[in-house]
Design brief:
The chain is mainly alpha-helical and 175 residues long. It is 82% helix and 0% strand. It has one domain. It is globular.
């Protein structure tokens, strides 16, 4: 384990050293390229900020309005009938909205149900098999200025639902 920690601490510095050496060998002015990229970052941040702000406000409104609790209560009978831990409802609803919030929910599930519980295992697989759809749409589409999404949101939500259903199914079949 000590060796793995040592190697993991060296990965980023070695990668940066590799980039500098590679750039030097290709006659690229690495520092000037870095500064140029840093200058462009400010314009990208300014371009996507309204979209990020909108998604964060939408998430907080969704939670504060009681819609989150309403969906949890509406799905609880179905999850109980299918013998799926009710804690999984929270991660299933919040994962498409926010990565940070879903990490917090996942941490709470691990603390309350234990690291080897069915709820934790299903939630862990959901964390890896569903996307933070609305955050990704806000950032990536905002960065390039796409405003007409047509089928994008429904298709992304359907893929999240399929990922969540498959995560639950696979974990229930294995454990």
């Amino acid at each position: 384990m000590t060796t793995i920690n040592y190697i993991s601490n060296l990965v980023i510095p070695l990668f940066l050293l590799f980039v500098v050496i590679y750039g030097f060998s290709k006659k690229v002015r690495v520092y000037d390229s870095f500064v140029s990229g840093a200058k462009d970052a400010f314009s990208v941040v300014l371009k996507i900020f309204p979209y990020l702000l909108a998604i964060f406000i939408a998430i907080k409104t969704f939670q504060a309005s009681g819609a989150f609790d309403f969906f949890k209560a509406a799905l609880a009978p179905l999850f109980n009938y299918l013998n799926i831990p009710v804690e999984v409802i929270s991660i299933s609803i919040i994962k498409p909205l926010s990565g940070g919030a879903s990490t917090a929910v996942f941490t709470d599930i691990v603390k309350t149900t234990g690291p080897d519980s069915l709820a934790t295992r299903i939630s862990a697989v959901i964390m890896g098999s569903a996307e933070t759809t609305f955050y990704v749409i806000a950032v990536y589409l905002g960065a390039v200025g796409i405003k007409k999404t047509k089928y994008l949101v429904p298709v992304c939500l359907i893929s999240d639902i399929i990922g969540i259903i498959l995560a639950i199914t696979v974990v229930k079949l294995i454990f």
